[in-house]
Write a structure and sequence with these properties.
132 residues; elongated; 5 helices; mainly alpha
Length: 132
């Protein structure tokens, strides 16, 4: 079941707020060990994907379908916000949020290429006639 663009925008906004609130409520638990601070960076990358989804859906609503996110300002701004939110939990969370977010961005890009990319046409070499 897929959601409409508007509903997807609202859901990604709500899920990002819930994730941020969960990170803030569990701040002491996340800061208690090294592995959990890395988990905090992973949660920051989830916030990045949710913010990017919300931003792109809002742009599709306002500017029409087919509008694509660019590196600047959409992706850069969403990554900056996610890293700041993670950094408020623990500095290591903010640092590890960056590679996790870049990997998530790569995965989202690959998924979009598979779903919406143009199919590759096999190239056919022209046949040349032999001269006698």
């Amino acid at each position: 079941m897929s959601l409409t663009t508007g509903l997807s925008c609202i859901m990604s906004c709500l899920l990002s707020v819930i994730t941020i609130a969960g990170m803030r409520l569990g701040k002491e638990w996340i800061c208690s060990s090294k592995q959990l601070t890395i988990l905090g960076g992973f949660l920051g990358s989830i916030i990045f994907v949710l913010l990017l989804t919300m931003t792109n859906n809002a742009e599709n609503i306002f500017f029409g379908s087919g509008f694509q996110s660019c590196i600047f300002p959409e992706i850069f701004t969403c990554m900056l916000i996610a890293c700041i939110i993670s950094g408020l939990i623990h500095p290591v969370c903010g640092t590890t949020c960056i590679p996790f977010s870049l990997f998530a961005l790569y995965c989202v890009h690959q998924l979009c290429q598979e779903l919406y990319g143009t199919p590759k046409q096999p190239s056919v070499a022209p046949v040349q006639k032999k001269r006698n």
